[in-house]
Amino acid sequence: MSATAAQSTSRRPLPAMLIAGVIGLVLGYAVLLAVNAGIALVWEDIPGSWETTPAWYVIGVLLLAAVLVYVVRRFVGDTGHSPIGGIKVSALTPRDYVGAILAILASLWGGVVLGPEVALVATGSMIGTVTAKGMGFTDPANQKKIVGFGALGAILALFVGPILSGSMQLGSTPTAIELAQLAWAIPIAIIASVAVTLSRLLAAVLARAAGQGPHLVILIVAALGVAASALLMQLLTGESVLFVLTSGEEMISDLPTLTTVSTVVAILVLKSIAYAVSLGAGYRGGPFFPAMFVGAASGLLVSLLIPNGPSYSAAIVVGVVAAVVSTAPMKWILVIVLGAVIGLLMGTWTLVPAAVLGAVVARVIPRWGDRIIVPAQSG
Question: Which residues, in sequence order, are CB contacts of 26 under 8 Å at separation 6+?
Fold first, then answer.
């Protein structure tokens, strides 16, 4: 080992980790604002003058996104990974970051059903990589810690806005723990988990067909599938295409305004289909936020179907938790903590027991999509 490498290994990485985490948080929040602003411009402001979003616009924007993602991955850089693989933290140079973030922005602004979380992780990973190099850490162990803290800081930006604004709160929640809600948590968690798992199963099959590199035909077919799902939902229900397009976490608080079972069923089925093709076709983005919407819709459906059944707030929270747990392999302690945190953020302490029970039920349901071997993605 050289003297420089030995010195790098012996130095404490904590200051660099903290610096990377703080900068990652700030820049991650800026990226999140940019992602949300782009989505709002393309899918709310521009179509705002129309009574309903026209088919030519939905199809045109999604096809443009497909072409842009292909061009970026093919000619700028293909350092990202398939969203079906979850979130992966690894060193990312500024040059590699350009290709990764451009593919993510093209996907998300284009209405593809993926979330912003990977954009933040990529940003934080790049900050961590630059910080480690700039502060002279050359050994892999310390570099990994610094990159990890950068990514962690950036991902925390996802919670800054909702916590400050209270936008994740569902409104009317029980003032005390209702034991009846605990019983309903089991079927809700099963339905939400199966919906997400089936989406991931379809995505895994599509990902095998897409292969490692960008496949323009599959990207275009997927774009048309997402567009068709959104337009069919608008035609059948009269609701905004945003109930199907984009990741949808901002629409969770609007779900309780839907009181017709057929409307919720249409949204749940068509959102799941759009989510599946977005996951597997080669677009870039996060898998968790769309799954949260699918879970929330599953919970609301059970609440509407059963008279005197679960309250919509408890049902939606359980569905969200179960869907997130079904999206990635998790250790039991993380499952329980996640249930408690989401229960608190979306409701009050009274929903925590139901949320934790929903998380536990989701944890034991097999993840069928994981049994299909998905080709390793580049990056």
Answer: none
